[in-house]
Prior knowledge:
Blueprint: E1 11-16, H1 22-32, E2 36-40, H2 41-50, H3 54-64, H4 71-84, E3 109-113, H5 119-126, E4 133-138, H6 141-149, E5 151-154, E6 159-162, H7 189-213, E7 216-220, H8 224-239
Parallel strand pairs: 1-3, 1-4, 2-3, 4-7
Antiparallel strand pairs: 5-6
Amino acid sequence: MATKEFKKAARIILVGAPGVGKGTQAERLMKRYPQLSTVSSGELLRESVRNKTPLGLEAEAFIRAGNLVPNEMILKLILNELKSKRWISSQSSVTDASPAQPSQNPSASFILDGFPRTATQASRLDSLIPINLVVSLITPAHIILSRIASRWVHAPSGRVYNTDFNAPKVAGKDDVTGEALTKRVDDDEETWKLRLRKFDETSQPLLEHYDRKGALWTVKGNSSDEITPKLFQELESRFA
């Protein structure tokens, strides 16, 4: 794949239903645009807990108590990561009255993964750092359900196959070990229908928030391969 360079910083969020292929698109974007990297709130949280940082110890207490980690704590993790990369001022704080002035250097481009998930979280994020593109990835529900029905996994390694477009060399067997493939416990149709309905309910206010901000762009397709070229074209028109 040919690479392209940005001329200004892209601060991106990908929004899409489970099974729509956000991870696939993020990987392809980072291969296409070497200046782009991922900032994952989940990974930052896990790393902070693992390294027993002050923030990590505080977060672990919430997790052990069976509670969600508060938004402010997640925002601090994100802010600390951006400061450590010098993509925003080292003086920036979650208590600042106005958003940080982010670097416009193309190497300060990132995809923010895992946060925000709600309009409330998005408003709080706006007050800290401006996101300049929110991509709504849309694939019809019946296509997603069909993909899930065709999905098989090799549980010990995590390798994933799909009988429609990434079939194992021998039906029902892992390519590397020859061991039997299985279905994920939650890969049944009713569970997925519920997940897709829940996503629609919770994502609508989030998308409306970014639409009002003028940051929302929607792309539709039946497959990742159909969506990717449209995504490349849009990013290049904005940032390259």
